[in-house]
Amino acid sequence: MVVTTALRNIKETGYPLRAHVYELLSRNVVSLAFADGLMVLSITASLPFQNLFRRSKGFLQWRNAGKWIQSLYQVIWLFIWVEWPFLLEWTWTAQVFFALHTLTFLMKMHSYAFYNGHLSETERRLHELDTPERGASMDKAVIYPRAPSRLREISSDESSESDQTEEEAKKKREALEELRNDLATELTSPMGNVTFPQNLTLHNFADYVLCPTLCYELEYPRTPHIRWSEVLWKTLAVFGCIFLMTVVSEEFITPILADATIRLRQSDFISDKALILAESISLMLFPFMIEFLLTFLVIWEYALGAFAELSCFADRAFYSDWWNCEDWLEFSREWNIPVYNFLKRHVFFATRSFAGTQLAMVMTFLISSMGHELIMGCISKKLRGYGMFAMMLQLPIVAIQRSRFVRGRWVLNNACFWGSMILGLSAISSLYVLV
After folding, report:
1. Which of 128, 189, 360, 390 could form a disulfide linkage to 351, CB 3.0–4.6 angstroms apart?
2. Can you tell me the distance from the alpha carbon of 352 to that of 341, in angstroms, rounded to the nearest whole number?
3. 372 among known catalytic residues
4. Per-residue confidence (pLDDT) for residue 165, from 0 to 100
């Protein structure tokens, strides 16, 4: 494809590559790098916030005003950095990169702040148990989910009689000791090398920023050293994929969309416009699928892999075999494991505690769809809601696929998944650009 495209371009223009996309990629590079650095630097405000909330003895504790101050900062932070590219009138390529990076670091900041806020409250409760006669809370200790499937509660025995026997007093002491041990364990990393608040340092925060994960932990498993050959090859692969994406976009997507736009403006009949839209979707089925697969490779295989190697991050499970999915719920779990883990930990579990499982699932999909809608808005400079509607439509589709009439038919479900994936990417992109 690259060779034949280069030969055709030489014949038509005298140059092997067209310059339009490369002009888009090269524009705004300096301002993009400067703004991106400021954006990443601005999330470090969470570190002094956490130290302040931890040391506070009253109103500014995490459980009181702390979590609301952090949430307000995140809302203002997101509004500023989403609006920034529009104010500077960047190209859509710069906007998409910056929007993706902004959402990534919003999730990183949220996970860091809310996990450490939980740990500061755990530490406070542990200190209160030193003087239980002052009314220290004996409520159940909720263990923060370190993995999406981990959420358990530890109960403590309480006496219901005012006159306690010696045996009852012994049971109460044992319950107190068990609760103390559970709280102390929660403040220590699973590998036992880091204990809260030893992690509230700039070095620990910077290390977390570089690690290819969206869920903060006190400590991560590490590889013994950096394999620089892996870093080199993955870096080359990143640029190789971007080059291929540029060629596909310049040769097989941009001309079709440009021609369709002109034809739509010249057409007055709805039937003609519908035909033009259908033709555009048909012509871009293959190019958009190629772009999707290359995007998957460049992010989850090569870019995250390179950062994992540079940070000696041992957990390289960034995706699973999503191409074998039977339904969209399975796809959401398998194709982007870091984001799935974040949503499961910080949205699903947090919502399920007061809203139930079904509503928590709906809220998780809604927040995810809003993020995708933002990215499509940056590309097309339009907020139409097509992508958001398509993502929310996955929930009733999953219900049908898991019904007794369809469940277990793997070939049928996998074929339907791929058919809707190939058609959906082209259709949604065409709708955003042309309608």
Report:
1. 360
2. 15
3. yes
4. 58
